[in-house]
Design a protein that fits this description.
- 29% of the residues lie in helices and 26% in strands.
- The chain is α+β, with helices and mostly antiparallel strands and 337 residues long.
- The chain has one domain (47-336).
- The longest helix has 24 residues, at 2-25.
- The protein is globular and about 70 Å long.
- Keywords: Signal.
- This is DUF8094 domain-containing protein.
- Residues 1-26 form the signal peptide.
């Protein structure tokens, strides 16, 4: 027992001595600092992935356009964009045999300017100013959204930019653009109020928000159309427009000057009402076609239009006004009673 214990003690002493020698000869291992956390925001999509998304979008739209089938859009198109394209297919089918058949708006996924959000929160938003599509004379502003990390990016809006419109400068490249909170202060209007305020301007000549918006092509066109229709039906009835903001999400991205690009959708109801019993009130064109081919109004006829609109909202300052960058306006339904 003693001999065994003595051997163990000798072995322990030898190991301790060896450990001491190795320790005295060891080269210190340098400590490696962890990579610092990124301090600059980064875009939610890189250029190559965005190109793949846009290519897939364009292929999806082309297939759906050829078939005239809105269900084929659903993997890559949703929200207002899906409703408007569905309405366009219905219009094209209903008017195919008329003298003025409806042609769906040309779309493209070829990007000219890419505005990519850099938020870590979901959903992620991307805006793309396209090249001018074949058969068109102005570029488009597309919005793409990714709801969760598991979802694909889908197009939620497309908007034809008004001729000669100047897009506000945004941060692009490796940094990306922040999404602007809907209740952000310091702008002409908080982004979350812009669509509803513009809808009020289109509905009411004395809107409290009229001075907040510069004159624009959509507003001028709708005003002129309502004036012409009112004159045409005044001997038999009346016509009125009511515009309301839809429940679709309002999308935002920041501009370099501290403003915001805001995109949303609206619905316009155009109501023809017969007020003189012995008179004849009739509508024509696409309204009559969607009404079943008979444009005579016995009581009321209501036409619904889908609208998608883009705004530039500048920082609040004396005389600053919101600019409407572009819009889309498509007849979606007609009902008589």
């Amino acid at each position: 027992m003693r001999q065994t214990l003595r051997r163990r003690l000798q072995a322990f002493a030898a190991a301790t001595a060896l450990g001491a020698i190795l320790a005295s000869c060891a080269i210190p291992v340098p400590e490696v600092d962890a990579d610092p956390a990124p301090t600059d925001p980064v875009p939610v999509l890189d250029e190559s992935r965005l190109e793949r998304v846009l290519t897939s979008l364009e292929e999806t739209i082309a297939a759906a356009d050829e078939a005239g089938d809105a269900s084929l859009l659903e993997p890559r198109v949703s929200g207002a964009a899906l409703r408007v394209r569905t309405a366009e297919y219905a219009l094209a089918a209903a008017t195919a045999s008329t003298e003025t058949p409806y042609a769906v708006q040309p779309l493209t996924g070829l990007a000219d300017v890419e505005i990519i959000s850099n938020t870590e929160a979901w959903p992620h938003t991307v805006m793309v100013v396209t090249e001018i599509p074949d058969g068109a004379n102005v570029p488009l502003l597309l919005t793409l959204e990714q709801a969760t990390p598991r979802d694909e990016f889908v197009m939620t809006n497309w908007i034809r930019l008004f001729p000669a419109v100047t897009m506000p400068a945004t941060t692009i490249g490796s940094i990306g653009s922040p999404q602007v909170p809907l209740d952000a202060e310091g702008l002409v209007l908080p982004p979350g109020q812009v669509v509803a305020a513009y809808a009020d301007v289109l509905s009411n000549a004395d809107s409290q928000y009229a001075a907040s918006f510069a004159e624009d092509n959509l507003r001028s066109a709708l005003t002129a159309e309502l004036t012409a229709l009112s004159t045409a039906v005044e001997e038999a009835g009346t016509v009125a427009n009511t515009v309301t903001a839809s429940t679709d999400p309002v999308l935002t991205l920041a501009t370099e000057d501290g403003g915001a690009i805001v995109i949303g959708s609206m619905v316009m109801g155009q109501v023809f009402t017969k007020t003189i019993e012995d008179a004849t009130l009739e509508v024509s064109g696409r309204l009559a076609v969607l009404a079943g081919g008979d444009g005579e109004v016995d009581n009321t006829l209501t036409a619904a239009y889908e609208q998608m609109v883009a705004f530039y909202v500048p920082p609040a300052a004396e005389g600053a006004q919101i600019t409407v960058l572009g819009g889309e306006h498509v007849l979606s339904a007609v009902a008589k009673r």
